[in-house]
Amino acid sequence: MWSHLSTISYCKLSPRIRRISAASLTSNRNLSTMVSTEDPELRDFVGFLESLKNYEKAGVPKGAGTDSGEGFDLGRMKRLMLRLDNPHFNYKVVHVAGTKGKGSTSAFLSNILRAGGYSVACYSSPHILSIKERMSCNGVPVSAATLNDVFKSIKPILDQSIQEENGSLSHFEILTGIAFSLFAKENVDIAVIEAGLGGARDATNIIESSNLAASVITTIGEEHLAALGGSLKTIAEAKSGIIKHGRPVVLGGPFLPHIEDILRSKAASMSSPVILASDIGSNSSVKRIIDRNGVGLRQSCEIVIQNEKDDKPIVELGDVNLRMLGHHQLQNAVTATCVSLCLRDQGWGRVTDEAIRIGLENTRLLGRSQFLTPKEAEALQLPGATVLLDGAHTKDLREL
Q1: 83 neighbors 183 (Cβ within 8 angstroms)
Q2: d(CA 101, CA 57)
Q3: What is the count of structural domains for the chain?
Q4: Is Ligase among this UniProt entry's keywords (predicted)?
Q5: Which of 3, 194, 195, 396 has its CA 20 to 30 A from that of 133?
Q6: Which CA distances in Å does 224 have to 126, 150, 168, 176?
Q7: How much is the average pLDDT of 144-163?
Q8: How many helices (H) and strands (E) does the chain have?
């Protein structure tokens, strides 16, 4: 296991981008043409979920994400999965937590694995247009028909579980159970699972060492402070809860020294090898954006990853044209690359350097460093404008 990792990444960007305010977009009547309502075929499914406690809407109780007496009870989630015959035991899992970068890193990794020819599921949150976005198989959001089939097949078990748990099972817990059941039905090789809140007491944290390929912690920042204990220290402790005994953990970062110490200490207590994707001494630069034949903007990057004990690079990729722009997306791409190498080390041999390149270059997410195409900008009555959509929701992200 190559736990002593050095990354050198160069990114070429250009500052010549016209900024369009969020207010001007949300007030534009043509924006509605880009927004769809939930599929009518999912009316019963959505209605069922809406009958449950939804902490995404209501707010998360104080301390609920901490590994303490105030934290969510993982026992009810484990009992639900047992009633469903533990579908998540049927495939390997990469578990991703972090304040920011989870969705992008998960998308990069999923596409790398797909480029290697593996059947890949991805579970993420929240969604933008449809709840179907949260569950994808092989790069495609689940269809309404498939989601309905899975829901109807396990609804009696869900009803029984809700009754036996005295109505305490939440919207996210039930949705997670449905997603894990869906992935088993689709017979995927591996699932990339994004934690919803924190890590230690998140509903997704029922994955055992035996089917965990790797844990990933992207960043640690001040989000959901009250729910996660009130400080960066307690947030780091909560997110480190996804580290499992003997399984490798990839740390994105960069982290403050005392935060990295917390994560490394947890990993040491679990005998988990640590792979550090960020390198404080790495040479990262932002230089220019390229426009490939008018089909969209790209940032041209060079990614070099090597073992600190060996000067020879493990991966050396030049002119990687990322559709996800910004230095933070370069870091997410580097983190996903490190996870890919970790999987390759475990025997996922089809994760070649070329698969890594293809996966990184083909990744695009709605509302994450998303530059609209000329046609999309024109639909917003902004012809000729370069429009960037990004759901930045923390102070650090808004300053990028």
Answers
A1: no
A2: 22
A3: 1
A4: yes
A5: 396
A6: 15, 32, 21, 20
A7: 98
A8: 13, 14
Pairing state of beta strands 5-12 and 212-217?
Answer: unpaired
Contact 5, 305 (CB under 8 A): yes
Report which of 227, 196, 166, 97 is spatially closest to residue 177, judged by C-alpha positions.
196
DSSP H helical ranges for the chain: 22-26, 43-50, 55-58, 74-83, 102-115, 144-164, 171-185, 232-239, 257-269, 327-345, 353-361, 374-379, 395-398
Q: What is the CATH number of the domain that holds 325?
A: 3.40.1190.10
Cβ atoms of residues 136 and 142 within 8 Å: yes
Residue 229: CA count within 13 A, CB half-sphere: 21
User: For the chain, what's the residue count?
Assistant: 400
pLDDT digits (tens, 9 = 90+) for 75-121: 999 999 999 999 999 999 999 999 999 999 999 999 999 999 999 99
The amino acid sitting at 173 is E
Per-residue pLDDT of 279-318, as tens digits, reads 633 534 444 567 655 567 788 998 988 877 777 778 889 8
Kindly report the number of other CB atoms within 10 A of residue 382's CB atom. 19
Max CA-CA distance within the chain?
A: 59
* Contact indicator for 22, 380 with CB cutoff of 8 Å: no
Nearest C-alpha neighbor of 288 from the set 278, 277, 302, 275: 302
- Count of other CB atoms within 10 angstroms of residue 54: 14
Cα 72 from chain centroid? 21
Pairing mode of beta strands 120-123, 190-194: parallel
3-state class (DSSP) for residue 186: coil
Please give the structure tokens belonging to residue 40.
């009518």
Domain of 305? Answer: 5-398
